[in-house]
């Protein structure tokens, strides 16, 4: 009995001392030793802890009552720290802290490389990433049917955007695969008979078209690379002159990825149709951004990319005309999906996301174009107001979301380094690893220096006004800073023409 | 009378929808999506502010409700994967003034 009583007492006293150490909660002391439990205050979380905020507030209140001064207005004699800092250390630290409300993530202004995934697209994709996992080619059960339904709806949206029939849309892994498939497919199919072995393309095409052509050259095809004018457009007379009876396909991109010029697709289409030559166009940068109708423009094959129109990466499509039928050799053979032109199981979530991106692009094209036009005008006017800057590419036949500007007497790569708070590129993403001047700008006939000093600004649906203002301010400041460093700029300011200088060789 | 009261009800519904859309738009953690959602909401309502045909108004309100549901889902998702702020955001610099200490930012989000 005694031992039981003494343990109860020990527990109670230990608990009450702990309480008194941490809080000012009214203490319930054991008044007697019998019936131990009822004398001890209840054990609750709230009674074992101190709420720091209320404790500090209470302390401040009592200070105010005593001194009639607000703690933040008083300074402790000697140390000079303020009164409330002394009372609550955290508040004091905050007082001393420098505000760091600025973010560090760069502004994204490289919409030609890729675009962010629209939340609306993600919303349609999520069911296909979680619950609807059937193989869209499974015809024997409901899992397959629901996936197939989503994919076919998406195909419909894509077809509607370019004015085609859903059956003419072939899903691929991206525009690169579509370009490869179109060029190699058509060339190999018609090259088999040995009569049609000539391909026409332009010098400013995307690397994947140029590389496909180079591979076809190794296989024995002849390729004509059309030169472009200084504004980036091809000359129709050049194209007509380059056509031969054995020409099987002409490939001209709709919107250039580096300078944003829009090629005269309608005229090219008409010419190709009249000569019975297939017309392929790389529409990765154009579809969903400018109105395109494959029937009006007489396009026979078109490559489309999903991630350039706010869709997911890893999916694209190829439009292959059915009437008049375009026949091609498939690159990938297997289960015979997609009319046998591109075997392999489709990715329903990617296809559905791509379809939704196309639907949104079609629905919002007018609205987005207005926004992009306004921002593009603001950006290009602001940048061209600086001295010795030039816009690359034709200002008329131009997609406004791509502004390519040369800053003379500044090295492009060093400007990109200086503009580390803005995500920009001096050319296409594929060539951004090398320091070579852009081959597209070289094809326009611009000098090495001008090609080296050019920067591409890409504006899109999610670019805001403040971002453009920030970019304008940043570019203006850094360009003038870099020019101040440059000895060439000094010579130019003195009125010396740089071309007249004879550089000594070392 | 009944038409007028119906109109009043619709107007109230539209205003409340507009306010909720704006409220949810502001909850995107991504700056660009947030700005776009706000701009798009304002512009869409402005575009249709003179629509009077009852049927069309109801259609538009249904569309708005759908967008609201989408915003609710997507803003939650965006809050799960927060990245660091863009350089254009915030823009408050210098020493803390006032007595809130609210603008000091903790930088622990994002993938390296």
Description of the structure:
The complex is a heterodimer of chains A (506) and B (112). Chain A has 506 residues and is of the alpha/beta class. Chain A has 2 domains: 105-112 and 364-495, Aspartate Aminotransferase, domain 1 (Alpha-Beta Complex), CATH 3.90.1150.10; 117-359, 3-Layer(aba) Sandwich (Aspartate Aminotransferase, domain 2), CATH 3.40.640. Chain A contains 17 helices and 13 strands. Mean pLDDT of chain A is 86; it is low at 19-32. Chain B has 112 residues and is mostly helical. Chain B has one domain (1-87). Chain B has helices at 2-25, 31-47, 54-80; one strand at residues 93-95. The model of chain B has no long low-confidence stretch (mean pLDDT 82). β1 (98-100) of chain A pairs antiparallel with β1 of chain B. Chain A: It comes from Penicillium rubens (strain ATCC 28089 / DSM 1075 / NRRL 1951 / Wisconsin 54-1255). Chain A: GO terms for molecular function: cysteine desulfurase activity; iron-sulfur cluster binding; metal ion binding; pyridoxal phosphate binding. Chain A: Belongs to the class-V pyridoxal-phosphate-dependent aminotransferase family. NifS/IscS subfamily. Chain A: Its EC number is 2.8.1.7.
